[in-house]
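User: Here's a chain of 123 residues. Predict its fold as tokens.
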Amino acid sequence: QVQLVESGGGLVQAGDSLRLSCAASGRTSGRSGMGWFRQAPGKEREIVAAISWTGSSTYYADSVKGRFTISRENAKNTLYLQMNSLKPEDTAVYYCAATPWGYCSNYGCYDFWGQGTQVTVSS
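Assistant: Prediction complete.
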């Protein structure tokens, strides 16, 4: 069973940068595809970025492409999301997720979820 814990959220101003981390535990986490999702109040959870277990394949939502970078350090069982040029519309709870598939950009593929970390961007 994979367990995930996010960290790094906080309050920032528009244009600032923030890096989220996700610590994964469990023997299968190293070969799992992983992703970042976010959910704003009253909105559906949406995918932000995804990465294959090797890091060779990545996906970004159009809204964050060019601003966010997903990466992973398997030796430390850690997933990252570097967020640059943050906008107020990026405000949401950000969730780390893992899929038993090697790579997936669809919500339904993800079986394991963290509890989320709040990111708030003020104008």
